[in-house]
Amino acid sequence: MIAYVANTLPFLWEGLLVTLAVSGLVVAISLVTGILCGIGLVYGPLWVRLPIRIYSDILRGTPLLVLIFLIIYGLPIISIDFGNYGSAVIALAAFKTAHVAEIARGAIQSIHYGQTDAGKAIGLTFPQRLHYVILPQAVRRFLPPWINAVADAVKGSALVSLAGIVDLTLAVQQVIGRTYDPLPMYLLGAFMYFAINYSLSLTSRRLEARFAYIRE
Amino acid sequence: MSQPLVQVRGVKKSFGTTRVLDGVDLDVAKGEVVCVIGPSGSGKTTLLRCINLLETYDDGSIKVDGVEVGYEDGGGSRKRRSERALAPIRADIGMVFQLFNLFPHLSALENVTLGLTKVRGISKAEATDRATHWLARVGLSDKLQNLPSQLSGGQQQRVGIARAVAMGPKVLLLDEITSALDPELVGEVLSVVQGLAKDGMTMIVVTHEMTFARDVGSRIVFMDDGRVQIDGPSREVLANAASHERLKTFLARIEMKH
Fold it and tell me: CA 20 to 30 Å from A144, out of A53, A150, B15, B60?
């Protein structure tokens, strides 16, 4: 039994690496795009806010799987084809961007307007106020929900297996396809996802403690 | 008479359909301490916030040291100054807030040095020297490294004053800076302001502290209904209060609170 699980490990390891790569890419992309969109939602003029608002509402109101299939199978019909892997990453990142944008918006808006007033009063420009005054304070509000969103991204990446990408989930299923023994393999797979996300939540707690000194 | 340092002419400002400032005129000469008093909703704070463009004024003119603050000079049509253009103008107009508005993630020292290094472009070492000097001046030499949350209200407000004054502003705007303080902490803050007045700092002070207005203010401006109703030397205005119905009523109400 142990020997057979051990035999599957290199294969699962490959799948795990794909899961980590997909999740990592999605988290990195959505962090940048999401924060930019969040800043746009708070400070942008109407022509910036409105499209982001519509984008965010639509994306958050669409099942992720539909979005993945739309990009993988729908777009090639109009000659837009990113390949399976590229499409999956784009779909996940687009979806996550909408969530991160809302988290960033909430975090920024939670900072009292007096902070902006004070920044203006000493002559800071808008980028300076963001950099030195608003964002350092917003980080504390941003982190806990964002770490949740990261964990969601890791879990959500399992959907790419449905697009034929051999991530951890599909690797587990392929092993089961050969061994016809689902229970231990699913348990093992579940444990690997849990291990990733539990270490994330530990990191989250440490980060929260790190920023707890900021008290209004 | 030379040109006043702050010149407010016919300034109007509405929030939606509510007219908050309805043609305000005010001159402040260099070195003057002008105390603005009046019932809540009379437009005192809005006037102050218009002077450093935290609020835009709809109509009229506000000049600080000869420069129109809200709109670009020249040309027939008025064009609002961009945020970028406003920053250096605001840097020359200090403001201290009712709720302190210190940056909670920065130490007392960093609260003061931020503007010096990022706006004035002063080196970190020199900014630290200058900030240390001003924090000592407001009696906080031993609190340089404290975060705002580790300071009392009075101490926080003194950091707020140091932060504004260290920038070397042409005029200092004080917006009800003792209203959020426990009564026993009011004195320590006002005595700092009194010291600045002695040094010749030009100040516009929105306040409910009549004793302060009388003793430190060179002039009292009484606002009501979005206009300046009375403008004169402090002692004179207070001495003749009985002859002005609205001021009398206002002072009587304040008296009752104390």
Answer: A53
